[in-house]
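Q: Sequence in, structure out?
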Amino acid sequence: MARLLILRTLAILLFVVTVHSRSVEKFAQDAPDFRRELQLSPEFFVEWEVFLEDKIIAFTVRVNAIGWIGFGLSNSAVSKRPSDAVIGGVRNGQSYFKDYHFASSILPFEDNSQDWFHTDASEKDGITTLSFWRKFETEDLIYDVDIKDEDLYITWAFHSTEDILDRISLDNKHTTTDREIVRVNLLQKPELPSTTEPPATVPPTTEPPTTEPPTTEPPTTEPPTTEPPTTEPPTTEPPTTEPPTKEPPTTEPPTTEPPTTGPATTEPPTTEPPTTGPPTTEPPTTEPPTTEPPTTEPPTTAPPTSEPPPRYFRGEKDLSPEFNVVWEVFPDESRIAFTVRVKAIGWIGFGISNSDTKVFSDVILGGVKDGLPYFDDYHFAFSNIPNKDDLQDWTLTQANEKDGNTTLAFWRKFDSGDELEDIIIKDEDLYMLWAYHPSEDTISILNKHLPTERGTFRVNLLQDPERNIFNFHRRNEGQGGADETT
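A: Exactly. Output:
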């Protein structure tokens, strides 16, 4: 019975591999339905081929760089989050390539389901070329972006010289000019036919000129018809009625001239001068305008309107050699997202407080155990053991454990509405609290952190670190003992 079950399993696997191999072979042999290309930047070129029957799209990117290359798809133009991406390159003559996604963090997470397939990679004369393909729709409904006959956004980035070693970090991230987002419909065929239409309209333009000459001929016949009438006017000469019998009525003598006394009556109106007298009050009316300059002073209040916080910014800090945190602020959404990476495989603790102790602090505790993530919203009151919140206001977006490192990504609102157990994040200094256990996942007083595996960090989370130098505070190990920190 067991042998039969094994044989059936092998048969199914062989069938799946055969079908997949035939699909890939067919895709490799078929000609694409159409091909398009874009020069995304002076350094980044992409072309893609679409196979409509197989529902496959294949990309080739050529980049003037010898570092890592990133390329992805997103339904949002705001940023790369959320998006489906690949990162690859050539290091020491060997290619590397993986399927990633972006959630709430600015750094990518490796997909559990690798749905992009790498077909070629090369690095020559300072240019890196990567070829890869994927289905329009994959089996990954959570982290992949479906390719449909509608606009989406291509995201791209690269590092000129640095390759990815163990992980992508902000130390080897792209520079500002080495990334961009471009809107395009990948399944829209090139509009080549439209270029032949204009020529068809050119010939007709020659026809109208042929009709113009005839229009000039009729007018030449009209003038002759006007000549005969010129003979009729001579009959108008007899009207000798011109002898102006009207001349005698030159009643010019009419004694209208004598009425020169009339104008004399107009001279008395010497009232004109008085009218000029009062106008002397008009000049003073020009003095008030001198008050206009002060009206220009209020506009000096306009600049302050440029002070509101930017739409998005981020910060990062190595709280210890083992504990790294990245925070991203979304002012428009009144939301903040955190990503912590810790060299540990036990529980991870992170929180905020208005003091440099965990008393009256808002924290999360999470990790990965037996391949499954755990994550909860807690608070500390007077006890050294955290209490789980009735309202879970922190949201987990990613958790993984790999090569002895644990990564957690999560977010919350500035003001969660939980006035009893949460801390309101304002535009002022507060304290980040952090702690972890190197290996134990169970949270108890018996496996609490060691004194060196916790600390505090003073910062204004709503202040852009790139615009303002913020204060950093790290507690000394002997200050207050382990009981006063998470």
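The mean pLDDT is 73.
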